[in-house]
Amino acid sequence: MVKQYKSVTEFTKNILGDTEAKEIADAINKKRISKQLFAMRCKAGLTQAELARKASISQGKVSKLEMAEDKNISIGDLVTFCSAIGMQLEIGFTDQRLTRTDKIKLLYFKLRNMLEELRMMAKGDPEMEEGVAKFTAEAFFNIIIGLFDCLEKAKVKKEKAPEPMLVSEPIDKDNIENLGKTQQAELCK
């Protein structure tokens, strides 16, 4: 039977051992931003040369950014890269002690505040107010549908136990025929 691994880290640990696997994981973690830049360029459908032309930088610079360790990428590089693919760079600070559930709650409050800001921007303009109201309703609907989907996936699925089969005596051909006649008689009642 072929062994399946849950992650590349698990695979490398199995093949190389803990120390070498940790070194590889550390090297990968040092390039999280550059991996993201590569993915964003691919999603934009651009080659390195095309992105370089749009960003007014060399193709070699794009290649270096996509291979660089995070500590060697400047904010200016990120702004240039993002601008060339029609994206905006946002920088945020989050308490490292926050749990994932705390981060989800934080996102909820950010979303709520953004919707409130949108409503305030539209205040006094009936056409914009109507547009914001429709958008808010649409956002509400999409969020609820998404949350219901998450809720369904989060439910613990219990396996249904097979019903026990009780046999009181060995069954032979005569017993089977009698059993069939008894069941037919009960159904006809």
Key terms:
189 residues, mainly alpha, 434 Repressor (Amino-terminal Domain), 68% helix
Instruction: Provide the CATH top-level class of the domain at 8-84.
Output: Mainly Alpha
Whole-number average pLDDT?
A: 86
Secondary-structure element pattern, one letter each: HHHHHHHHH
Low-confidence stretches: none
Alpha-beta content class: mainly alpha
Largest sheet: none
For CATH, the homologous superfamily of the domain at 8-84 is named as: lambda repressor-like DNA-binding domains
Instruction: Tell me the number of strands.
Output: 0
- Please state roughly what percent of the residues sit in beta strands, choosing from under 5%, 5-15%, 15-25%, 25-35%, 35-45% or over 45%: under 5%
Q: End-to-end span in angstroms?
A: 54 Å
Contiguous helical run count: 9
| Assigned CATH architecture of the domain at 8-84 | Orthogonal Bundle
CATH topology name of the domain at 8-84, in short, is 434 Repressor (Amino-terminal Domain)
Q: What percentage of residues falls in helices of 4 or more residues?
A: 55-70%
